[in-house]
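Q: Got a minute? One more chain.
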Amino acid sequence: MPISQKMRVAAKKVLEGKPKGQALREAGYAESTSLVPKAITGSDGWQELMEELLPDEDLGAAHKKLLEKKEVVVINLGDKQGSEFRFTGQIHSDAARALDMAYKLKSRYAPTKVQITDEYDEFSDEELEAELLRKRERRSAGKGFKASAKG
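A: Always. Here it is, folded:
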């Protein structure tokens, strides 16, 4: 999908902090498209636009600077004593959020990994058939009808 003017407007709004769906609606995309932002944000055009607006070199340089920048808190010691500055040793929270947003917009995080296990993976065909039969019999036994005495 090529980069369109609507895509540019939506990207600007997302970079301003608006949710993707809202940004897409405000940029003129259909409601149905805004409900599934990945239709746009997952496209090659969007990724190309993100590279244009958030070049990897700039992100890398900002990341390096931010890793070195430490948060400072001001502690009020009271009227007579004034204030004290303390270094927390933490990356500044605003900077960390901004970097996180940039990496998300550029789809740089690894996808969520899901591990699927199959408890029957090591079963032979005969063992699978026996287990299936056992489960069917158990299910059938539970669905029996009880006779009721009506007088």
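A: The radius of gyration is 29 Å.
Q: Perfect, thanks.
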